[in-house]
Amino acid sequence: MPTSPHRALYTVDQVRALERGALDAMAVSNHELMLRAAHAAFDSLRRHWPQAARIAIHCGPGNNGGDGFLLGVLAREAGLQVDVVALTESSRGEAAQARAGWEAAGGRVRLWDDTEALPQVDVHVDAMYGIGLNRAPDAAGAALIEAINASAIPVLALDLPSGLSADSGDCPGAVIRADVTVTFIAHKRGLHTGRAVDRVGALELATLGVPASVYSPLQPDALLLVAEALPPRARHANKGDNGHVLVVGGDRGMAGAARLAGEAALRAGAGLVSVATRAEHVFALNAARPELMVHAVDGPQTLEPMLERASVLALGPGLGKGAWGHALWLTALDAGKPTVLDADGLNLLAREPRVFTTPTVMTPHPGEAARLLGMTVDAIERDRFSAVRELASRYGAVVVLKGAGSLVADADGRLDVCPWGNPGMASGGMGDLLTGIVAAMLAQGCEPWEAACLAVGLHARAGDLAARQGERGLLASDLLDPLRALGNALPDGASSHA
Questions:
Q1: Counting Cβ atoms within 10 Å, is residue 248 exposed (0-12), middle (13-18) or buried (19+)?
Q2: 335: annotated binding-site residue?
Q3: Which residue from 30, 88, 141, 177 could staple onto 61, CB 3.0 to 4.6 Å apart?
Q4: Mean pLDDT, the chain, as a whole number?
């Protein structure tokens, strides 16, 4: 079955190929396609700001500006007062025709002058830079972007917020902060991860009537995750059917990390969960969550019997990088069990790299990814797609690169992007939860790719449900109840106790 355009994510080169295919398949001109984009933009404007009476459209010299000029014609015909501000005295190619059409219809073009104030309007429309920009905007463009951002007036961005890299989501300079972005023909992958998610606002796709036959020959570079849960269990199921997760971690002062990973594994459906930790943590963890089987482990010899009983390992939450953690890390990896590696499990891997031959899922945040690849965090964030693919290829694992718009990649280059999650999840313990959820999916029979995708989706969606009471102050443990509900496919994540 062909992938829906609403789930498929493309590179800039792929989008250009789709545009060429659309022109041929639909037998239309570039101008007609641009006019369709203008109609889609005007529809979005009216839906989101139905009371707007005056708008300013900020046009660059290329086709993105051409969309803006044509939108201006439509808006004036509908009775809106329209100010058009242009970055340059002339426009290129098809945009020049659109500009001439605006002027022929009686519209005036005001050249941007950073010594003058912006027009007083209800909505700013960003039509400055399109998918071709792969650098920071020039001085004039940057000044206009900063003035629009400072105006506190709502912004509609056409195709993408100006200054944003459509391929990577990087922001090399000034970038429009949009309230709504209407993107045309296909989703650009860079709009869905990293710094981009703070800039696009509400994201809409307008396919402009492009037929499915144009999309079908082209394999998307990535896909958006879809909301999924495991199927219902058989009525005769027993705990042994759902796997035994062993959490290895919880060095001194970090018992909470091991508890969160273990409890998340239970809430995500693992049949049994054991925790191998420091002796001083055993009483507290058993008292707090008696369903966890907590054992004192002082070294490899006491860990080995637990490894034999386990079906899946969650290695790293609170493990530490000292002698105790390192010895357990080596022993656990040598056991050859399906493994989820996080936190200090990853930091130790950066010191002693290996290629995995057993099913392994790694869940680094950008700092851990940077250590694993010998790069800076800024370099990771400039191109998260390349980074996660390199990690998966280098280590022979399925890799989850956490952050806004988390990415899941495998060693063959397959990649999915998570469309859920919120800033409240940037708090301690959230990664430990994800480790436990991935381990639970593996324990219940999922392959690493499916386990990672399911877990990332459940984790982020549980975070969004928990954040209904506010993002600031969100605790990792707040996700456990909605996680259970979502894992059982209850409607809208309703509490199973309702």
A1: buried
A2: no
A3: 88
A4: 95
Considering all CA atoms of the chain, what is the largest pairwise distance in Å, rounded to the nearest integer? Answer: 84
Determine if residue 67 is labeled as part of a ligand binding site: yes
65 is in an annotated binding site: yes
d(CA 65, CA 11): 21
241-298 pLDDT, tens digit each: 799 999 999 999 999 999 999 999 999 999 999 999 999 999 999 999 999 999 999 9
**Does 44 carry a binding-site annotation?**
no
The reply, when asked if residue 159 is annotated as ligand binding, is yes
Q: Would the annotation count 93 as a binding residue? A: no
CA–CA dist 294, 307 (Å, integer): 13
- The residue type found at 170 is D
Q: Where are the beta strands (DSSP E) in 51-108?
A: 54-59, 81-86
The torsion angles phi and psi of 3, rounded to 5 degrees, stand at -75, 135
| pLDDT one-digit tens code per residue, 315-363 | 999 999 999 999 999 999 999 999 999 999 999 999 999 999 999 999 9
Residue type, 93: G
Tokens representing 211? 């037929």
Packed helices 255-267 and 480-487: angle between N→C axes, nearest 10 degrees: 30
Side chain identity, residue 34: M
Q: Cα–chain-centroid distance for residue 58?
A: 29
The answer to whether residues 204 and 180 touch, using CB atoms and an 8 Å cutoff, is yes
Domains along the chain with CATH numbers: 8-223 (3.40.50.10260), 239-493 (3.40.1190.20)
Residue 431 marked in a binding site: yes
Is 428 marked within a binding site?
Answer: no
| CA pair distance 393, 397, nearest whole angstrom | 7
Under 8 Å between Cβ of 122 and 54: yes
Burial (Cβ within 10 Å: 0-12, 13-18, ≥19) of residue 74: middle
Q: How many CB atoms lie within 10 A of CB 17?
A: 16
Q: How far apart are CA 23 and CA 17, in angstroms?
A: 10
Q: Which residues of 96-113 are buried (b: 16+ CB within 10 A; e: fewer)?
A: ebbbebbeeeebebeebe
The pLDDT value given to residue 497: 36
130 is in an annotated binding site: yes
- Residue 66 counted as an annotated binding residue: yes
114 is in an annotated binding site: no
The reported pTM is: 0.94
Token pair 């509400």 in the structure block, residue: 202
Report whether 421 belongs to an annotated binding site: no
From 70, 60, 10, select the one nearest 40 (Cα to Cα). 70
